[in-house]
């Protein structure tokens, strides 16, 4: 049986992203394993079983070994891993939360990640996002489920300065969002006479 090669939905946009100026950088991040976790009670037992203290404050994320744990709701989190396969992550997390009355589902194919860096990242995002992205409000460890232009996204602040943000977007909206981001970044692209 022939093995299918996985192609990133934004492969065709990589060259356009690379031509952006340093004030706004967009990088297509590699695929990562993602598991949606539902768990009604979070405590020491769940933390020990999962190997991470799940964030309980709304709209936050924490580093989790080789990935992240993102708060999505009062009883819902997104766990990611850069080293485990989707099946391995799902099996490990399911084994940890099932005895606690929780559930885990592989959602790795649902979203892809873009990383936005540079001094004008907040300005670009503000063109299509109605939430406050000022570093006082949206600093490192903050997350938000919101609409960016017309695409549902999850934003993760990786720095306190607001110049490093991960955007998780559904794979089916990735091309639309890539085109929108390139258009939104045009204003911050220096012209030849600058």
UniProtKB/TrEMBL annotation:
Where does this protein come from, organism-wise? Geodermatophilus obscurus (strain ATCC 25078 / DSM 43160 / JCM 3152 / CCUG 61914 / KCC A-0152 / KCTC 9177 / NBRC 13315 / NRRL B-3577 / G-20)
Matches recorded under InterPro entries: SoxG (IPR007375), TrmE/GcvT-like (IPR027266)
Annotated protein name in UniProt: Sarcosine oxidase gamma subunit
This protein's source sits in the domain of life called Bacteria
């Amino acid at each position: 049986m022939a093995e299918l090669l996985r192609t990133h939905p934004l492969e065709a946009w990589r060259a356009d992203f690379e031509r952006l100026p340093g004030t706004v950088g967009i990088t297509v991040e590699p695929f990562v394993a993602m598991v949606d976790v539902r768990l009604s009670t979070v405590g020491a037992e769940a933390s020990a079983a999962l190997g991470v203290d799940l964030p309980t404050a709304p709209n936050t994320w924490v580093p989790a070994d080789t990935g992240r744990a993102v708060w999505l709701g009062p009883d819902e989190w997104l766990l990611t891993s850069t080293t485990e396969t989707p099946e391995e992550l799902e099996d490990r997390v399911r084994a940890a939360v099932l005895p606690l009355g929780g559930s885990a589902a592989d959602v790795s194919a649902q979203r892809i990640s873009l990383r936005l860096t540079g001094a004008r990242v907040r300005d670009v995002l503000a063109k299509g996002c109605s939430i406050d992205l000022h570093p006082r409000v949206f600093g490192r460890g903050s997350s938000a489920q919101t609409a960016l232009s017309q695409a549902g996204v999850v934003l993760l602040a990786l720095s306190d300065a607001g110049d490093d943000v991960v955007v998780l977007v559904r794979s089916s909206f990735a091309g639309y969002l890539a085109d929108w981001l390139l258009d939104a970044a045009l204003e911050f692209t220096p012209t030849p006479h600058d």
